[in-house]
Automatic annotation (TrEMBL), chain A:
Residues 1-29 form the signal peptide. The keyword Membrane does not apply. InterPro entries: Bact_solute-bd_prot1, SBP. It comes from Cohnella fermenti. This is Extracellular solute-binding protein. Keywords: Signal. Gene3D superfamilies: Periplasmic binding protein-like II (3.40.190.10).
UniProtKB/TrEMBL annotation, chain B:
It is found in: Cell membrane. This is Sugar ABC transporter permease. One of its GO terms (biological process) is transmembrane transport. The keyword Nucleotide-binding does not apply. It is a multi-pass membrane protein.
Length: 575, 309
């Protein structure tokens, strides 16, 4: 007994060691992040690399570098997004096509738990895979670059695939360069014409109303926030068992200050000029949205819904799965969901299980206090960056592979497969064969596991060809969704020039720590606001939040965010 | 074993205990590999650790992390919460398996005893993820069976969100912890009780002792050493509230109540990527745990001559 006790005691004492128990293997390489790629990874790599680079450059400059070596090669990749099981390589059509052409297989992995933990643990241990797909504005990006854990893409290109450089949009390179170097290839970097071409952009989570309920209450006009309130009251009277409003899960750490993605719909109704109003040039700060009256009014509206018995406070602690389970059963009169999911997942399921009459119809944007809503619809500056880490055993092959993925050929292979077999060119635009397109719409799971289109290299390049093709597909195969998108897109404005990209400071910096605390604080204030029994209670909860936020040092973060805002403008060439 | 002379050479004693040594070897190796070797990582609590520079070359910053820690109101809150939750668990959770073991021991119908024993220790094998999932479902004010039952019996008001209330949080934590672990923890006591010489009970019966007298004068004194050792260990564990349970039961309405040391260390260290700060929190936790256990052991030795070391 005695020994066992001692033993367990020491175990207790050493729990702390668990966090620190990461190995630091592989960290002894040269520390200078700016150094040339070859030097960082040992002599053999650099000499062979130089030889290859000169060889491929001199022998045949016209031939793409990836064609010089198509022997079998596998590299590992971590994809930031544990939901992305469709992206795993399992012999889907698109994946096999890539391997056939280039010899390359991507051993893609997902986080086993939360992504930020998984990534931070890998960084702390210096145990990174060959490549990473990670949101370019994730705080960990700075860490990867500053710690010299990733190769500079330009240097790899110069060395191994010089002709690749001309394929990169110079504006993109300028925008995404850090310290004068490009450290990752961003996918879906959209150009200016994105706002006018392609699928209409709906930058908010739309709200929908259940068709039968809408009819039962007399199909009233729902144009203002008051109209919506009245419609919900009427719906509750006629359908006392149905939950009046359903919103996606609330979590400030995951969804940002709006807490629930569904809140954007209300926020940009109550505060159509929110983004402009956050920037206070005279004070050199970029304010937290929580200081904005309209932004708070959106939450006040939720509070009114709650007080009228129209909002179930359970939603504040629901997980997304719990909410979606109820939505699949059409248990809400008004519900919010990602546009494409509503039309390709929820409505079809509802139709087949509870009936066509209970499917959801989109609501128009809501006027609040006499103003039209405005939805900030910037073109995407990129979604994820493709990073090649210093752990990569063969960065040469990987960069050459990236050249393939980036090329028109690679793009077509990933999205459409083989011409004549899986797609045809129609009026200069690729179009999936009709049976495959059908499968995509009606049996998405099989489509993904069989074909894996859009899932293979993930290095989407944006551009008019792709935009036009997808717009045409949507219009043709999903007319209802297309119409819904057009309906809401009329409230869009281009927020590109506002310089609001990537504002929040790195989580491990002093300001980042304050920012985390502000988020925590806001996260727990939201239930107090929404469930306030009187206006006074709401106001005092809000006042105490602002006071606490200021005590935490929010202004420091707001100053930093202002600097980052200036930086964003500068990178866009707007200042 | 009684035949072994008291004085023997070390080698001979090792030889005689060779099978026991082999039995404990895997556990000792496990300790060394997973608990001693990683311990050097504690040094990053005193560094501004950056992964690229590693453990050896990251800049030393002395006690800066600890200075920040003690000035950090969220940290103080997490210390307070940790002790509050652990004390509640100790007060209600510690006697529970002991009581269960005593009750089980008094059962005459052996098959029933075995069934009860199995049923009570089954929850131990259910992971916290599932348990908390059950809780969200069963305690949902609209659809949850348990919530409805509690409303019917008048224990809670209508529309009370048990999972979304800081008031019910502590109760739920303690109740679920006991439900999950009571059967498992009673096994040790049952084993200890099984070791008591039946002649003592027979003698007590002859003297006309009632059941309660027998439990009070024979069973409890006989298992006192076991109880005390487990108590000392529990006190050492006061500072470790169950991470899985806290993390999973945390939501926007309970985030203050569920902010305990291990959750805070995880949030700072892994979610925000402040590795050094997170480690400092963990190190603080370990030191307090060690001190608490030492004190408990010391007092136990002084008061009852029973101790771990």
């Amino acid at each position: 007994m005695g020994n066992k006790g001692m033993y367990a005691g020491v175990a207790t004492m050493l729990v702390a060691a668990m966090l620190t128990g990461c190995s630091s293997s592989g960290n002894n390489a040269s520390p200078s992040a700016g150094e040339s790629a070859g030097n960082g990874s040992g002599a053999s790599a650099s000499s062979s690399a130089a030889a290859n680079a000169s060889a491929s450059a001199s022998t045949d400059a016209s031939q793409p570098a990836w064609k010089t070596d198509t022997s079998p090669f596998t590299f590992t990749q971590y994809f930031y997004g544990n939901w992305a099981s469709n992206y795993l390589w399992k012999d889907q059509y698109a994946m096999k096509l890539v391997t056939e052409k280039t010899g390359v297989t991507i051993d893609r992995r997902l986080a086993t738990g939360a992504d930020d933990d998984y990534l931070n643990t890998m960084i702390a241990a210096g145990d990174l895979p060959d490549s990473i797909m990670l949101d370019w504005n994730n705080p960990a990006v700075t860490k990867l670059i500053q710690n010299g854990m990733v190769y500079s893409i330009d240097e790899l290109i110069d060395q191994y695939a010089p002709e690749f450089k001309s394929q990169l949009d110079p504006e993109m390179v300028k925008y995404h360069s850090v310290d004068g170097k490009l450290w990752y290839l961003p996918n879906i970097y959209e150009t200016e014409d994105r706002l006018t071409s392609g699928v209409p952009i709906v930058p908010i989570r739309p709200w929908f109303i259940r068709s039968d309920i809408y009819q039962a209450i007399g199909s009233p006009k729902i144009e203002t926030t008051d109209d919506l309130m009245n419609a919900l009251v009427a719906a509750k009277e006629k359908f006392p068992d149905v939950n009046p409003v359903g919103l996606e899960f609330f979590n400030v750490a995951q969804n940002g200050f709006r807490a629930s993605n569904s809140m954007d719909y209300l926020i940009y109704s109550f505060s159509p000029h929110l983004l402009e109003e956050q920037v206070k040039d005279d004070q050199q700060v970029l304010e937290y949205p929580m200081r904005n009256k309209g932004f708070i009014d959106a939450f006040r509206y939720l509070n009114q819904l709650y007080r009228n018995g129209l909002f179930d406070s359970q939603l504040l602690i629901y997980k997304q799965e719990q909410y979606e389970e109820k939505l699949y059963g059409a248990q809400y009169a008004v519900a919010s969901q990602y546009m494409s999911n509503m039309y390709t997942m929820f409505n079809p399921k509802i139709q087949s299980t509870v009936g066509q009459d209970q499917t959801y119809t989109v609501l128009d944007g809501l006027k609040a206090n006499g103003q039209d809503p405005r939805y900030p619809a910037s073109r995407l500056m990129g979604w994820q960056g493709f990073f090649i880490t210093k752990n990569a055993k063969n960065p040469e092959r990987i960069i050459k592979f990236a050249e393939y993925a980036w090329s028109d050929e690679g793009q077509l292979d990933m999205r459409y497969g083989t011409e004549g077999e899986t797609y045809d060119m129609v009026d200069g635009l690729p179009q999936l064969k009709s049976d495959i397109l059908d499968m995509k719409l009606n049996d998405n799971a099989t489509f993904n596991s069989k074909y894996g289109f859009e899932d293979s290299t993930l290095l989407w390049r944006a551009g008019k060809l792709w935009d036009d093709a997808s717009a045409r597909d949507l219009k043709m195969s999903q007319p209802e969704q297309y119409a819904a998108s057009v309906l809401l897109a009329k409230y869009d404005y281009d927020s590109y020039s506002l310089g609001m990209e990537n504002l929040e400071p790195d989580g491990s910096s002093a300001e980042g720590t304050i920012n985390t605390k502000v988020k925590d604080l806001w996260n727990k204030t939201i239930p107090k606001l929404v469930m306030a029994k009187t206006d006074d209670e709401f106001d005092s909860a809000y006042a105490s939040f602002v006071k606490q936020m200021d005590q935490t040092g929010a202004e420091k973060v707001e100053k930093t965010m202002y600097q980052r805002h200036l930086e964003d403008l500068k990178k866009k060439g707007l200042q | 074993m009684s035949g072994i002379p008291v004085k023997q050479s070390l080698a001979r004693r090792i030889w005689l205990q060779r099978y026991l040594m082999i039995l404990t070897l895997p556990a000792v190796l496990w300790m060394i590999v997973f608990h001693y070797i990683p311990m050097y990582g504690i040094i990053i609590a005193f560094q501004e650790y950056t992964p690229y520079q590693g453990f050896l070359h990251s800049p030393w910053i002395g006690l800066a992390n600890f200075n920040e820690l003690f000035a950090d109101p969220t940290f103080r809150e997490s210390v307070f919460n940790t002790f509050k939750i652990s004390l509640a668990k100790l007060i209600f959770g510690f006697p529970a398996p002991l009581l269960l073991a005593l009750l089980l021991n008094e059962l005459v119908f052996k098959r029933f005893k075995r069934v009860v024993q199995s049923l009570t220790y089954l929850p131990y094998f259910v992971s916290w993820v599932l348990v908390v999932g059950f809780m969200y479902t069963l305690l949902d004010p609209d659809t949850g069976a348990v919530a409805k039952l509690l409303v019917k019996t008048g224990l809670i008001g209508d529309e009370v969100m048990l999972m979304g209330s800081a008031h019910s949080f502590l109760t739920l934590v303690v109740v679920t912890e006991i439900w999950k672990n009571v059967g498992w923890n009673s096994i040790i006591y049952l084993a200890a009780i099984a070791g008591i010489d039946p002649q003592m009970y027979e003698a007590a019966v002859m003297d006309g002792a009632s059941r309660f007298r027998r439990v009070w004068h024979i069973t409890l004194p006989a298992i006192k050493p076991t109880v005390l050792i487990l108590l000392i260990l529990s006190i050492g564990g006061l500072v470790n509230s169950n991470f899985d349970q806290m993390y999973l039961m945390q939501n926007s309405m309970t985030q203050d109540a569920a902010n305990v040391l291990s959750v805070y260390s995880y949030k700072m260290g892994l979610v925000s990527g402040r590795f050094s700060y997170g480690t400092a929190i963990g190190l603080f936790q370990s030191l307090v745990a060690f001190l608490l256990m030492y004190l408990a052991n010391y007092s136990s030795r002084k008061l009852t001559q029973e101790s771990l070391f």
